[in-house]
Design a protein that fits this description.
1042 residues, alpha/beta, Immunoglobulin-like, Rossmann fold, 5 domains, 9-stranded mixed sheet, 6-stranded mixed sheet, 18% helix, 30% strand, Caspase-like_dom_sf, CARDB, signal
């Protein structure tokens, strides 16, 4: 909860411009004097990535109206409909025990000008079941015509929350400063944060209980973990609940009828099972709670008891053992057994607006109704009118049962899942995505689910998906039609996890209804997560405020004989967004699986709460902030919060070499990088894991991985070189750990060939899963070149192992040449590399980058020429005598957006021109590196014979002896501008053997020529561009003549 006090907020803004360090680091210092504590922390965000935004959907398409998005790796986006979308980072500062905040200062550091950018506006969040107007949200004219910086401040205070008695300050930092009217965009490379605190007048222990486990957990959450030490265990409060005797980990709250249910697999059996695992467990009835505790209503009495159970008896997990049907009498069983608290709903909710939420029983600070108006969970319902408590003390799930049969099914399936030691079904994951109709990438639920299936850095922030140990299957409307019969057959074949994004209601989801759930026959229960609307409405209310006599469909999944053992879902609307996968519900769904696989949190209740708390910085009083709160309240666990999701592993110790990658070819004594991925498929964590690179019987290199957690993997980089030509077999080997019995997968081997007189080519397949690389391989084979192919990230050292690199991006327009890839290629070229780059959307994605201008040395003219014929340049070594078509034939026929470009320096020369149009391809030769860049897809050239011939010419140009490439007279209007000086560095030489080689710098300005002498010149020279005779002392800056 937020504590109210007078806090001084100070922001210092620097307007200088320096170089930016592209990495995150933090440093903390603390000093005190006169009772004051000062906490200092420094944050360094990564450099921004600028991508194409929503384009013509916002304004008429044109160079001035091309919106762009700005992403910073690892950061979420601040999205307010119609306002510029900017990344932000939520910092968590632990306040010392017994102190309050006096002053917060944030000093932004270096400011870098990113140029003029029309930043895309945020899109409205909409219920997934929304069927109204789905037009794109336009930009807010008032904001976009303003000269005021956006955001107005470089930081905002998101609140002060308390978790398990620890007080945590939340600060949102904004690395981007934007001037909307001028489009000037700036980036701060560092933030120095200073927080001053002072002792409280009255010591408030809050819900601090002195648990060592609590302290370790808080230390992992905050930027200043050392401050945990100020919370001493002897400061914990003392007391007891009249209903508990002793300490417990796990608590079931139910009624007397269900506690004493005369059926097998009742709550008493569940308590025995938990206790047998070492989880101290107990049951308390609501009848006893209502008698022993005071409160405004039954919900408050239950919450007061849970607070005591947490504070004095060690409770961590709470299972609410009963349904919470609302607004009706009769129906499937008992009425509300453990009543839900209805929390405030921002919009789209019927009258009265109310979200049934078990979060109320997990977050125990305050009373959730500070103003006493009977509406719980309003933004100002914390103490003193501050934020309500959103950080949990305990982890809560619900068994939504209201009959003996449902109770027995729920408990039996929970114990059955927890009892599984090993089973092939644990590897099986199913993702079910339906048509949403939100436009563009958000038309299909499958596009969002792919981010969960494989992990993603989409929308800036990074989340881990299902590891490769899992068999990942999809059922997507995007890919083909499917019906409920096919889904039910897959479920009946047993799956471990099912994830869903699509339309739903109280009684239906995934094209199934409650009767279909009752017909399932799967022997092994699964875990489910759905973003669908109202599917988890455990009070049975629908969008029209009508209470159904039938339980919601997700309740049926966990209470029927078959189906799921647990399901996470929405008690009200799920939320998406137009034209993007960055929907509110999607953020929580991604963060849940990141908690499981990225943070190693296996207990379902813990993982769900972690997903919510990872999104705390997005909750405010804006439209999007209110929707994020809506989701925070409505996402509930129908299942046991203590249940841990299983790894698909069986052995205690089982290491494997999961991958090995290296170039197929190299040259004598030229080191290559060998990458090996080591996976821990065992149940136990491993320490000091040794990985070796072996040639024959000799260990050529090795590396030690200090810690490899269960389910974790690590990439090691090893080095090797061969002195002589030949074929070598290299083995990556991980040494077995003590007790490891399965060692057949502890090694992999690959072949590398060493050639001394052969041109070696690396083909980088960067087309985001398309199959365009085949056209390049065919042309390479026809040209007789040896090549290796990779479809993963590569470093400059690996690139430099080859004579030439071919890099294709296909039709990809969202990640074509990421910022990191551009930096890698820049280092590769600086070291003398040769590059053939091809892709129709490289310019569309990257035209504003330094790499595009400074290394490719072109200007992006337009996205789609609509011209599919290109003509070569007479006398050019690559294109002479060629006219090519990039549609039809035996090519890829994929050119929807062939780009027009224009050379901007004398190092870059146009080589293919669109018929009756501008340039489509250039060559660059600087004397240091060489590039051939096609602003269309080489794969689309519609004749295999022409592709082979062009490939031969391009590689001959890039790997043969270097020649100087400067356009005749240096005055082609598409190559040099008469308005701005264009630098030309010319390496000249004597004609007919006269004189010495020399260097000079030239600059064209107003069509006159300036000379700057770099070396001794005293002979008569004749060049293809210019002549001069015995200039002598006139060199060195004086005007010459052509």
């Amino acid at each position: 909860m937020r504590r109210q006090s007078t806090i001084c907020l100070t922001c210092f803004l620097l307007v200088c411009s320096f170089s930016i360090l592209p990495f995150f680091s933090s440093a903390l210092a603390q000093g005190s004097g006169q009772g004051e504590t000062v906490i200092r922390w420094q944050y360094r965000p990564e450099e921004p990535i600028i991508q194409v935004g929503l384009g013509g959907e916002i304004l008429p398409m044109g160079a001035q109206n091309l919106t762009q998005s700005i992403r910073i790796p690892g950061l979420e986006n601040r999205i307010i409909p119609g306002e510029p979308v900017v990344p932000f980072r939520t910092a968590r500062i632990l306040v010392p025990f017994g102190e309050e905040i006096q002053e917060i200062k944030v000093l932004p550091g270096e400011k870098k000008n990113l140029g003029k950018i029309l930043i895309e506006p945020g899109q409205d969040p909409l219920p997934i079941s929304f069927s109204g107007n789905r037009t794109v949200t336009p930009l807010n004219e008032s904001t976009y015509s303003s000269l005021e910086p956006y955001p107005r401040d470089v930081f905002t205070v998101a609140g002060v929350q308390e978790k398990q008695g620890y007080k945590i300050l939340l600060i949102n930092l904004y690395p981007i400063m934007y001037i909307p009217k001028t489009k000037d965009t700036y980036y701060f490379g560092t933030f120095d944060v200073e927080v001053k605190t002072a002792p409280l007048g009255t010591l408030d222990r809050g819900l601090f209980r002195g648990s060592e486990a609590d302290g370790a957990h808080i230390a992992r959450l905050v930027e200043n973990p050392a401050e945990v030490g100020s919370y001493a265990s002897d400061l914990a409060a003392t007391g007891a609940s009249p209903l508990l005797d002793g300490d417990y980990d796990y608590l079931i709250i139910t009624n007397r009828g269900l506690k004493n249910a005369p059926v097998p697999y009742n709550f008493t059996d569940l308590v025995r099972w938990k206790s047998s695992k070492g989880v101290a467990s107990t049951i308390v009835t609501v009848e006893d709670i209502y008698s022993a505790y005071t409160g405004a209503d039954e919900q408050e009495k239950i919450r007061n008891f849970i607070r005591d159970a947490y504070l004095y008896h060690g409770i961590t997990y709470v299972l609410l053992g009963g349904d919470a049907d609302g607004g009706r009498k009769g129906g499937e069983g008992w009425n509300s057994i453990v009543p839900a608290r209805g929390l405030w709903a921002w919009d789209y909710e019927a009258t009265p607006p109310m979200i049934p939420s078990d979060l109320y029983y997990a977050c125990l600070d305050g009373d959730y109704d500070s103003n006493g108006n009977g509406i719980y969970g309003e933004p100002e319902d914390g103490p003193g009118g501050g934020e309500v408590d959103l950080m949990a003390e305990v982890y809560v799930g619900r068994a939504p049962v209201d009959s003996y049969a449902e109770l027995s099914n729920f408990v039996r399936k929970t114990i059955a899942y927890e009892s599984v030691a090993s089973d092939p079904y644990l590897e099986k994951v199913l993702l079910v995505g339906e048509y949403l109709g939100f436009g563009g990438v958000s038309d299909w639920g499958g596009n969002c689910l792919d981010e969960i299936k494989d992990g993603s850095g989409s929308s800036g922030y990074n989340t881990t998906g299902f590891p490769e140990d899992y068999q990942k299957s999809t059922l997507y409307d995007r890919d083909r039609k499917w019906d409920k019969a096919e889904l039910m057959e897959l479920i009946d074949g047993d799956v471990h996890s099912l994830n869903h994004l699509g339309h739903a209601s109280v009684g239906s989801a995934m094209k199934m209804n409650v009767e279909d759930v009752g017909r399932l026959k799967n022997d092994r229960p699964f875990f489910g997560y759905s973003q669908g609307c109202y599917a988890g409405s455990f009070d049975n209310r629908d969008p029209d405020s009508v209470y159904s006599p039938i339980d919601s469909i997700l309740e049926h999944f966990v209470t029927e004989p078959h189906g799921a053992f647990a399901f996470i879902g929405n008690s009200r609307f799920g939320w998406g967004r137009r034209e993007t996968t960055d929907g509110p519900s999607q953020r929580y769904h991604r963060q849940f699986w990141d908690a499981v696989f990225g943070e190693g949190i296996r207990n379902i209740g813990r993982a769900l709460q972690d997903a919510k708390e990872d999104n705390l910085g997005s909750i405010d009083k804006t439209t999007d902030g209110n929707v994020m709160r809506f989701c925070y309240y409505e996402i509930n666990l129908l299942g046991d919060p203590e249940t841990s999701l299983h790894h698909p592993f069986t052995a205690s110790h089982n290491l494997e070499v999961a991958g090995m990658d290296l170039p197929s070819y190299t040259k004598p004594d030229k080191p290559i990088e060998v990458r090996a991925v080591v996976k821990n498929r065992g149940i136990e964590d491993e320490w000091n894991v040794t990985v070796q690179l072996v040639e024959g019987d000799a260990v050529r290199d090795s590396e030690v991985v200090p810690h490899l957690p269960s389910g974790g993997s690590a990439e090691v980089r090893l080095s090797w070189s061969g002195a002589a030509e030949g074929r070598y077999i290299l083995e990556a080997r991980v040494l077995p750990q003590e007790g490891e019995e399965l060692t057949e997968d502890n090694w992999q081997e690959r072949v590398v060939e060493v050639y001394s007189n052969r041109t070696l080519i690396l083909l980088v397949d960067d087309d985001e899963g398309a199959d365009y690389e085949g056209y390049y391989e065919e042309a390479l084979a026809a040209s007789g070149y040896a090549y290796a192919k990779v479809d993963r990230p590569v470093g400059e050292s690996e690139l430099l192992s080859f004579d030439c690199v071919i890099w294709l991006t296909g039709r990809d327009f969202t990640t074509a040449l990421t910022g990191e890839e551009q930096r890698t290629l820049a280092r590769f070229l600086d070291a003398g590399g040769s590059l053939f780059l091809s892709g129709q959307d490289i310019g569309y994605h990257s035209h504003a980058s330094d790499f595009y201008r400074d290394y490719l040395q072109v200007e992006y003219v337009k996205d789609s020429t609509g011209i599919y014929v290109l003509e070569g340049v007479e006398g050019d070594s690559i294109s002479d005598g060629m006219t090519i078509e990039i549609s039809g034939g035996d090519g890829a026929d994929s050119q929807y957006w062939p780009s027009e470009i224009m050379p901007i320096t004398a190092y870059s020369t146009g080589i293919f021109r669109y018929k009756d149009g501008g340039w489509g391809a250039v060559r660059v030769g600087t004397g240091t590196y060489r590039v051939v860049y096609f602003a269309f897809g080489f794969e689309a050239i519609n004749s295999s014979a022409e592709r082979a011939e062009i490939m031969r010419r391009v590689l001959s140009e890039l790997t043969g002896p270097e020649t100087t490439s400067v356009p005749e007279y240096g005055m082609d209007g598409n190559n040099l501008s008469s308005e701005e000086p264009s630098p030309l560095r010319r390496r000249g030489g004597p004609k007919d053997g006269m004189g010495e080689v020399f260097d000079m710098d030239l600059a064209f300005k107003e069509m006159s020529l300036e000379f700057k002498e770099l070396g001794e010149v005293n002979q008569v020279f004749e060049g293809s561009i210019f002549e001069f005779v015995d200039m002598g002392s006139r060199l060195g800056g004086e005007k010459g003549y052509v």
